[in-house]
Amino acid sequence: MDEYAIGVLTNIGLFSFVALSAWLLLVAGELSFGQQAFFGVGAYAAGICTAMLGWPLPLAALAAMALGAAAAALVGLPTLRLRGLYFAMATLAAAEMLRILFELFHWQIALGDERIGPDGTQGFRGIRWMFERGVEPLDFLAIVWILLIGVMVIFLRIENSRLGATLRALGHDPELARSAGIDVDRLKLGVVAAGGALAALGGALFAHHNTYIEPRNFDIMLGVHSLAYGLIGGLGTVFGPLLGVVLDIGVLEATRSLHGYRMIVFGGLVALLLVFRPRGLLDERAVHWIKSRL
Amino acid sequence: MLRVVDLVTAYGKIEALKGVSLEVREGSITCVLGPNGAGKTTLMLTIAGVLRPRQGAIEFRGEPIAALSPHAIVARGVALVPENRLVFAHMTVLENLHAGAYQRKGPYENDLEKIFARFPRLKERASQDAGTLSGGEQQMLAVARALMSRPKLLLMDEPSLGLAPLVVEEIFRIIAELHRDGTSILLVEQNAHMALRVAQHFYLIEQGRVTFSGDPGSLAEDELIRRAYLGSARA
Amino acid sequence: MIDFLQNTLDGLALGSSYALLALGFTLIFGVLRRANLAYGPAILFGCYCATWAYLETGIGLLFLALIAVAGSALAGIYVERLCFAPHRKGAAAAAMVASFALWMQFEELATLALPRHLYAFPALYEGGPLSLGRLTLRVESLVMLVAAILVCAALWGVLYRSRFGTAVRAVIDSPAAAELSGISVSAVSLRVFALASAIGGLTGFLIVSGDQQLTPMLGMWSTLKGMLAMMLGGLGSLPGAIAGGVALGLLEAHSQWYLGPQLRDFIAYLLLFILLAVRPPWMNTRSAY
Predict the structure, then answer these.
(1) Which domains occur in chain C, in start order?
(2) How many Cα neighbours within 13 Å face the side chain of C221?
(3) Radius of gyration of chain B (CA)
(4) Which residues of C fall within a CB distance of 8 Å from A85?
(5) Domains of chain A, CATH where assigned
(6) How far apart are CA C107 and CA C42, in angstroms?
(7) Engineering a disulfide at C277: which of A78, A229, C104, C170 sits with its beta carbon 3.0 to 4.6 angstroms away?
(8) Average pLDDT for residues A151-163, to the nearest whole number?
């Protein structure tokens, strides 16, 4: 496989993490404009752990997930009772605050003859753990996808369990869920934290793939894109967000000839698609249809 | 005037109306009785265009209206006074009436005066926000607002619900007046006693189907109905 | 002391542009109960049309303003028909994501038509700022303030003294009751969208000719500021939109002075987050979806 294809597939994998985290919240009934912030938290945390503290990547990734979950919980706790656009705006505000904090964050240590560490708007370079251990792009691709598939397998099992049904009930009608005895607050907080951890894992991998990250990577555009991937691919299955990412990044690459018109065409197609399929391509009905044919 | 044929309306998989047929003759008061959850409100909402039927037909003066949106149905001369009144709480009584007259083409000052004459309490409260009115006054306002569009057929969903007996009397007095002045009325009621006094024809809907159709006399004679809806206080 | 007054003056000017943006946003939100992510980009489209016209024909400011207003209104209608009309019942997420997709369309269209990052735009006013004692006020800011007041007055007139206005307020109050009163929610939504976008177009024109430049950033910036101001003032209330916009302007002007541009934005977001978490009574609790 040539390097170019490896690069595209890796990007698809990386952005699937943040798309999945937005999707998870959508299924639980909430719109979030802020998942990009936890992607960023994971990126910075993992980068600091490996490049500055000398930790191995697996440990750094775990730390990143823990921090992502914590940050998400910090955002989710005061906003538990918010719904709809109120919640979405709160996540936007929180994400932008985090991004500004990244811009103000300076912490560098001397390693050898250079200074390594987050340098505000200048970004964070030197996240070279992958390079230093001679991890090939193909190996990294495998790591990303194995982790992604692992996450999706976990999600698939949850989908078919009571927890999955409870989550979808929450997404469908929280008042009804509450009156059925479901602890809506705790569930919502759990979903928010899980989404944060998931996005952070993606961010940790992203940081090590790019070796350089800056606050601009984690802006609103990424957030709204993730939300779009989660919705367009379809809310009916965990493959939905993946499909959304594939469609966007895949189309981006495949329509080189449309360069310059890509968004006009794609944007129009997305809006049209949503007219007929407001819950995405692989919505609950489509998934049901597919399952009945298998 | 209004013909409903084999109407089926569903919420998702649940069929609330399982094939309802009825007729409202021009110039009459027709009453639909039935227990809670029988589908009476669903029927009214479907006729008014708020709900779309899955099957069946609705004809008003020969014209099919089942696929029209509510405002188009108002334009044809059918107005609904909904079960929960649905007044514009943040607008004044007068503005509520103006809203009801939105589709009127010419000036309607005369009609406003007539409405105020019929509902003197509304005239008193003309510049008050509708949300501050009592339940009975809101009911009057809902009726008045519907009347502003000069409907030929007035649909009324449980106009006496939750109101004090004196107010209920007033409402039914107005219903009788409207009938006298030529408006046809389709009335949904749980209060069968009051309805018996004004309606010319009755339908009974139970579990989404019409189980009785007849005049007040037959209604009062039917043993089962008498016990269920007209007898001494039910549990 | 003089700094405080100057910042307050600047904040009021800035706040009046935010108030106008918030008004447009709130009109759409009040009637449709949805946030329109393509609001700013529609304004961008209108201003790009005006810029293009200027570059091609060099016509005067008044015509440019009209083009900006008309272009934004047309873009708004396009957005309403494609993203909001099909999703009236439920599917709020779909409407918003669709408006995001159109946001992308507008931005790309703009950069295709006028590829440079920055364009000069004719100045609203060629002279220097006014002096009020030791304070200075740019004429462009004064125009923005006056425009804001005039638009508010005109909007009030439309809403409270016209038949259309009664219909709009009825739909805002209860779309169900409005339909039953014979008001077409669909027709009202379309016209409100056009009106809100037109107001946005005017605001965009004033901003762009006040700054004498146009950049693609105007799109996202307008949406963000409009949404932020709307939420600060209490979702869905028109007086709240004005108050929120002015408050945001004042907040930004003062925090920029004392804390710099990054913290300025941080504080605005922090305030919004706190307000949302605490939900004071003046914050409209009408359900947003």
Answers:
(1) 2-128+135-278 (1.10.3470.10)
(2) 13
(3) 17
(4) 29, 34-35, 235, 288-289
(5) 3-293 (1.10.3470)
(6) 9
(7) A78
(8) 90
For residues C48 and C114, the answer to whether their CB atoms sit within 8 Å is yes
Chains contacting C (3+ CB pairs below 8 angstroms): A, B
Contact C174 B89 (CB under 8 A): yes
- Residue C242: C-alpha distances to residues B125, B126, C63, C198, C283 (Å): 31, 29, 27, 17, 14
The amino acid that residue B185 corresponds to is I
Is C98's CB within 8 Å of A94's CB?
no
Which tokens sit at C10?
Answer: 């600047």
Residue B55 pairs in a beta bridge with B8
Beta bridge partners of A118: none
Judge: B91–C183 Cβ closer than 8 Å, yes or no: no
Residue C92: is it exposed, middle or buried by C-beta count within 10 angstroms (0-12/13-18/19+)?
buried
pLDDT band at B233 (very low <50, low <70, confident <90, very high): very low
- Burial pattern C246-278, b for ≥16 Cβ within 10 A else e, equals bbbbbbbbbbbeeeeebebbbbbbbbbbebbbe
Q: Are A244 and A12 in contact (CB under 8 A)?
A: no
Q: Within 13 Å of residue C130, how many CA atoms lie on the same side as its CB?
A: 11
What's the pLDDT at A110? 83
**Residue C54 class from Cβ within 10 Å (0-12 exposed, 13-18 middle, 19+ buried)?**
buried
Residues 6+ apart with CB under 8 A from C215: C117, C118, C119
Q: Name the DSSP letter for residue C86.
A: G
Nearest-angstrom CA–CA distance, C4 and C190: 43
Q: Do A89 and C265 touch (CB under 8 A)?
A: no
DSSP-derived pairing of the beta strands B63-64 and B55-60: antiparallel
How far is residue C228's CA from residue A97's CA, in Å, rounded to a whole number? Answer: 13
For the stretch B20-63, pLDDT in tens is 999 999 999 999 988 888 888 999 999 999 999 999 999 999 89
Side-chain half-sphere of A95: how many Cα atoms within 13 Å?
A: 26
Q: Which amino acid is at A181?
A: G
Taking CA atoms, A165 is separated from A150, A153, A203, A240, in Å, by 21, 16, 29, 17
Please give the domain boundaries of chain B with CATH numbers for all domains: 2-86+151-230 (3.40.50.300)
Q: Does B94 touch chain C (CB under 8 A)?
A: no
- Cα B186 to Cα B204: distance, rounded to the nearest angstrom: 13
CA-based nearest distance C231→chain A, Å? 8
Q: Evaluate whether chains C and B are touching (3 or more beta carbon pairs less than 8 Å apart).
A: yes
pLDDT digits (tens, 9 = 90+) for B109-144: 888 998 898 888 899 999 999 999 988 889 999 999
Helix axes C2-32, C139-161, angle to 10 degrees: 30
ipTM given for this complex: 0.90
Percent of chain A surpassing pLDDT 70: 98
Rounded Cα gap, residues A276 and A289, in angstroms: 16
